[in-house]
Every structure is written in C-alpha cells, then in structure tokens.
Amino acid sequence: MDLRCDGGKKHGVLIDSGILEVKCISPHCGAARGVVVLHRFDTMTGELLSTKRYKDPGRSSANAADNAPAAVRFA
Fold it and tell me: How does pLDDT run across 32-50, given as a tens digit for each residue?
C-alpha cells in the first residue's frame, strides 16, 4: 500500500509484512543526483532494518545527453 498526501506525492510504501519503505533525500544518507536511497523500518518497533542505495532508474543515458555541453562550431 502506498502512503500519499492529498497532493498525490508518494511518501512511502507499507509492505504487507509490517515493513515501511521510504525514499530518503538526505545527502547524509548518500542521496545525490542519480542515486536513490531507500530505508526500511519495522512498523512495530520503529527500528531501521536496512538502507539501500541504487542508481536512479529515472536517470538514463538518454537524459545524460541533455546535460552534455554544446558542441563548438567552427566557421
């Protein structure tokens, strides 16, 4: 089950085994451009179970071309 606010923003996922998974945006935890950090918590105790870092699937090599410097033209 997704946990969302009235604005539709997804704040976390409640996994049926009693685990809450949230996406962290803190650089302290390793979040950065192109990196997704997910924390998993036990819903009964509030204990942090795990932290995983992944390459952001939304940042494909096609998106990287948008940030590439422009080519220099010679006349």
Answer: 888 989 999 999 999 999 9
